[in-house]
């Protein structure tokens, strides 16, 4: 007789014995702490067989995004904080006013020509 319930509640197919302590081989690790100028501390683990040269000196802080270094007393600081620039600001850096006017005139004339062609095509139908 079935009662409609699951005999193995809270388990999934293929799961090992309940409460198994050893879940496989765990590689040796080296832990490094990183500190940002806002006082956040981040702990990262790296494989023990990695050369010390390959472990980064700085990371981005996951809390605030500032650079974080391994020296707690002297965290890295940003030399110059640039505000967010829009796409238009970058375009204005690359183009002079005369070039911008010329490009605008080309774009407007192309739109006018397209509208004229579409109007003529609609009138002929």
Automatic annotation (TrEMBL):
Gene3D superfamilies: RNA polymerase-binding protein A. Pfam families: RbpA (PF13397). GO terms for biological process: positive regulation of DNA-templated transcription. Residues 1-20 are annotated as: Disordered. One of its GO terms (molecular function) is bacterial-type RNA polymerase core enzyme binding. HAMAP family: RbpA. This is Unannotated protein. It comes from freshwater metagenome.
């Amino acid at each position: 007789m079935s009662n409609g319930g699951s005999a193995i509640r809270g388990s999934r197919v293929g799961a090992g014995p309940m409460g198994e302590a050893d879940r496989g081989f765990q590689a040796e690790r080296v832990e490094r702490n990183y500190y940002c100028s806002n006082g956040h501390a981040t702990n990262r683990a790296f494989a023990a067989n990695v050369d010390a040269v390959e472990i980064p000196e700085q990371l981005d802080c996951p809390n605030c995004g500032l650079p974080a270094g391994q020296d707690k007393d002297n965290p890295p600081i940003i030399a110059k904080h640039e505000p967010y620039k829009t796409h238009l600001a970058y375009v204005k850096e690359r183009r002079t006013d005369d070039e911008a006017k010329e490009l605008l005139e080309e774009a407007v004339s192309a739109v006018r020509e397209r509208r004229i062609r579409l109007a003529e095509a609609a009138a002929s139908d």
